[in-house]
């Protein structure tokens, strides 16, 4: 997050528009890989913001490797989410309005492992039942992208 960190030095915690990618990784049983985040201690999707000169798909590939140690053979574009309901305030006070491209990773190589300091653990979850301690923003992503409809 070099670019965003540099901006934060200028604007502090004021709201920023932040473009990024969210990556959905499913195992053969159809369960979704989530990370227990270090900033909020809840379960969220893999993803993050763009760096200068990076495409949304390049950011997806980078974040997938950085956060889970995985490499995707390809990415299936799902949707782009934006607007006032994409507002998020981090526990430390930084505010953002996300413009988020949602991708589903295809042909995954490797075994999921915590690969950076952004998560405590990685685990697969079924989307058939509500997930305890799910990040509200992640729930919003999954609902808007059509992955959860029952809860």
Automatic annotation (TrEMBL):
Hydrolase as a keyword of this entry, yes or no, is: yes
Q: Name one Pfam family in it.
A: NUDIX
The UniProt keyword set, sorted, is:
Hydrolase
The cross-references to InterPro entries, in alphabetical order and at most eight, read: Nudix_hydrolase, NUDIX_hydrolase-like_dom_sf, NUDIX_hydrolase_CS, NUDIX_hydrolase_dom
Task: Using the record's annotation, list all stretches that form the Nudix hydrolase domain.
Answer: 16-147
Write one Gene Ontology MF term. hydrolase activity
- Identify which cofactors the protein needs according to its UniProt entry: Mg(2+)
Keyword Hydrolase annotated: yes
Q: Which domain of life is it from?
A: Bacteria
Q: Which family does it belong to?
A: Belongs to the Nudix hydrolase family.
Record PANTHER family: 8-OXO-DGTP DIPHOSPHATASE-RELATED, GDP-MANNOSE MANNOSYL HYDROLASE
Name this protein carries in UniProt: NUDIX hydrolase
Write down the species. Answer: Paenibacillus radicis (ex Xue et al. 2023)
Higher taxonomy:
Bacteria, Bacillati, Bacillota, Bacilli, Bacillales
